[in-house]
Structure formats: structure tokens, C-alpha cells
Design a protein that fits this description.
Elements lengths: L6 H4 L10 H20 L3 E4 L8 E3 L5 E3 L6 E4 L32 H16 L16 H10 L11 H17 L10 H9 L18 E3 L5 E3 L3 E5 L6 E3 L2 E3 L3 E5 L1
Antiparallel strand pairs: 1-4, 2-3, 5-6, 6-7, 7-10, 8-9
Length: 257
């Protein structure tokens, strides 16, 4: 594809990219339409399970194409959940129900979650977890920006028009709905499209997204356990960055006791 993958354009920190916020918004709409087609436009539902910037390719007109169906799974349109033998996807974008079985079955809402994480990064121009910042409270951007919006504050973006600021705010609010911990609290991709195409003033701010189920608790060795059923532990001696409900580092293990 002429313009490569989306990650090269949204994580450039202003270097070598010509995309403005209106163009980023149009790309987000295109990706949402593509995922919605996979879920509702085919004879069989198609779950992608790996929605992330690297898998969104841009043609010469910056029209997005959802790519890499290596982890995708087909299932009948009248099925509510799909059976998986193991979690699949990229950790930073993986839906929590793929790890925490007490959240409910795996469905198309897993792709909605991944799209929400992608949309948040598109709106902010930064990764959801960013240790290269001055203020530690901003390391996990979705939580920080939710606090900003809940307090009636604007998302601080320098050098943008009022129209661009409203686009950014709309994308962030929709993203926050998509990354709700419980699949039942997330909208369908059809509803996501409606929200993205609507007015930002019509959107309500969702509840604050949770990292992990409230039943999860820490252990003395720094791992997390789900009432003795599942344990998330680390075996790397490198610095650990905690993101969402998992660890983002070189070695993560999820075991059933």
C-alpha cells in the first residue's frame, strides 16, 4: 500500500506526516466501516482479533484497509459468542475477556475493544501507555483523559482549531465507550459509527474504564490473581510497565491454577 501502515503516521510526533485531524477522523470512520462490515455485512461473522495501527494499511488516497487476518475467526451470524482455546491478539489492544473468563464469552465486542484502543491512539497521536512524558499521571492516557473530560476540561491539544478540538474530543469519548471492561457495556460497531458520525455534544462520557476485574488482587510476588483461578505473572528482570489488565514487557505468562 502506497502510504504504508497507520502507525507510521500517528506515532510520528509531528515528524514526516501530513495528516491533519480531519484526515485522521476520516481514516477512523473508514476503519470502523470496515470492521462493521466484517461483523454484519457477510454471511458469516468475521472476528479479526488483531485490530491495531500496524494492521491498518493506507492506499495512495489514505483510504484505510484492514489487513492481516491471520488470527481471524469465522462464526455464524446467529451465534452470540465464539469458542477459543487460547487468547489471541496483541496485548496492548487485546480485549480483557480473552484473559478474564468471568467477564463473559468472547464475541465481536473483542474487536470493538481493540478499535477503541486504536481510536484513542489516533485521537491523541500517542500510545495509550507512554513513559516518555513529564507528568507521571499521564502515563496511561485513557484514564488521564477521562479525568479531564469528567471535570469539564478540554483535552489539551496545542495549535488546533475549534473544529479539530471537537473532532478529537468526539473520537476520545467514543474510544472510552469502546474500552469498557465489560463487553456488555461496549457499543456495537454500528453504534460506534453512529456516534462518530454524530455531534460531540450528543455524546455522554462513559464510566471510567477499569484495568481489570474487581475480583483481581495482587500477590506478594507482584503478580495478579483472580480468586485462585488465573494468575498473571512476569518473568523478566526488565522494567515493567502496567497497561490495562496485563503487563506490557518482554515476557508475560498467564496460567490456570
Amino acid at each position: 500500500m502506497h502510504n504504508g501502515s497507520l502507525d507510521k503516521h500517528i506515532f510520528s510526533r509531528g515528524e514526516g506526516t501530513s495528516l491533519d485531524y480531519r484526515e485522521v477522523y476520516e481514516i477512523a470512520l473508514g476503519v470502523a466501516r470496515g470492521i462493521e462490515y466484517l461483523h454484519r455485512g457477510c454471511d458469516m461473522q468475521i472476528l479479526h482479533f488483531d485490530i491495531m495501527p500496524h494492521n491498518i494499511l493506507l492506499d495512495i488516497d489514505f483510504t484505510p484497509k484492514v489487513s492481516d487476518f491471520g488470527l481471524a475467526k469465522l462464526y455464524p451470524t446467529n451465534y452470540n459468542t465464539v469458542s477459543l482455546t487460547a487468547a489471541r491478539g496483541t496485548l496492548r489492544y487485546m480485549a480483557p475477556e480473552l484473559v478474564f473468563k468471568n467477564l463473559g464469552g468472547v464475541s465481536y465486542k473483542a474487536d470493538v475493544y481493540s478499535f477503541g484502543k486504536l481510536l484513542m491512539e489516533m485521537a491523541s497521536g500517542r500510545k495509550n501507555v507512554d513513559v516518555i512524558i513529564e507528568c507521571s499521571s499521564q502515563i496511561y492516557f485513557p484514564l488521564w483523559v477521562h479525568d479531564q473530560l469528567s471535570e469539564g476540561l478540554d483535552v489539551p491539544v496545542e495549535g488546533v482549531s475549534e473544529e479539530d478540538r471537537r473532532i478529537i474530543k468526539k473520537m476520545i469519548i467514543v474510544a472510552l465507550w469502546c474500552i469498557q471492561l465489560s463487553p456488555s457495556e461496549r457499543p456495537s460497531m454500528h453504534k460506534v459509527l453512529e456516534m462518530l458520525e454524530g455531534e460531540v455534544d450528543d455524546l455522554q462520557i462513559p464510566p471510567k474504564p477499569l484495568f481489570y476485574p474487581t475480583e483481581m488482587s495482587t500477590r506478594d510476588d507482584g503478580s495478579w490473581t483472580d480468586n485462585g483461578k488465573y494468575t498473571i505473572s512476569t518473568s523478566s528482570t526488565s522494567e515493567i510497565t502496567y497497561e490495562d489488565y496485563h503487563f506490557e514487557h518482554t515476557s508475560t505468562s498467564i496460567t490456570q491454577i
